[in-house]
Amino acid sequence: MDMTISGLMKESHNTSVSKGWWDNSDRNVGELLALIHSEISEALEAYRITGESGLNDIWNRESDGKPEGFTVELADTLIRIFDMCAAYKLDIENALEVKMEFNKSRPYRHGNKKA
């Protein structure tokens, strides 16, 4: 598996296409963002079940063996983001580099924010 960002984008999108999720080509940005958000919500639910001591726990659902857990849901979030980026030909790697470099220039707790 190519673990570069571009490789993960390609693999995520190819899998999504092969499983029929792009058969209807009118998947829009709003729908895709809602699906990304749903994975974040599932991560929150997993956290509520396990607490901080279970952040790395991965378990398999009894009915079908599907992996579940906090980090699995975060992985699902990345898979959905990479799928969307590949479908829309978004240069997320460049955007990450630009934003991370900018963040280095920000003052300590810029805006005096709590989090």
Can you describe what's shown?
The chain has 115 residues and is mostly helical. It has a domain of 80 residues. It contains four helices and two strands; from the N terminus they run ααββαα. It has a two-stranded antiparallel ribbon with strand order 1-2. Helix 2 packs antiparallel against helix 3. The longest helix has 22 residues. It is globular, with a radius of gyration of 17 Å. The model has no long low-confidence stretch (mean pLDDT 94).
SSE layout:
Blueprint: H1 5-18, H2 29-50, E1 59-60, E2 67-68, H3 70-87, H4 92-105
Antiparallel strand pairs: 1-2
Neighbour order of strands in the largest sheet: 1-2
The overall average pLDDT, rounded, is 94
- Rg over CA atoms, rounded to whole Å, is 17 Å
Distance between the termini: 35 Å
Q: What form results from the Cα inertia axes?
A: globular
What is the helix/strand order?
HHEEHH
> How does the helix and strand content classify structurally?
mainly alpha
In what range is the share of β-strand residues? under 5%
Number of strands: 2
